[in-house]
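Title: Prediction job returns without error message
Component: structure pipeline
Severity: low
Priority: P3
Assignee: unassigned

Description:
Job completed but the reporter wants confirmation the result is attached to the right record. Sequence as submitted:
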Amino acid sequence: MNIIGMNIDRLKVMEEDHNKPGYFICQCQCGNTVSIKAYSLTKRNPTRSCGCLRTETARMIGVNNLNKAHELNRKYNTKFQVIECSHNHKNNTSGHTGVHLNPVTHKYIAYINIHGKRINLGNYKKLDDAIAARQEAEDKYFAPLIAAKNEMRAQKGVII
């Protein structure tokens, strides 16, 4: 089958690739020249471009998702991935987010980060008291943000 001269979506088949048997040299509309296997050009769902089409599509999808995420972050001025994260970081020594042991005073320090600021919740002798303070702060600061985000998602049908 002679496919030289055929246009396949963004590709124009120029000539056989003499360095690789069974391959054709194709010129893409974006200006790139690529060597593509003959089967890939003649199969049911042929190769459509040099790769630029995939890049453009991925960029378009990524930009749309990023715009939605940035809109939410801008509106509430916080990073929801951090708020909704359910696992501890690997360097966490207390086993609870926002609570650590001060090695000098041997007291537990509880804190919460909100809107780019760290709020100190106090120093506690018992780990349970520090965890309770952190949980109370999460209910106070994070719960309204998450509820507003979920409401906004429901209104716009946003999937992030």
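Comment from assignee: result matches the submitted record. The CA atoms of residues 9 and 48 lie 5 Å apart.
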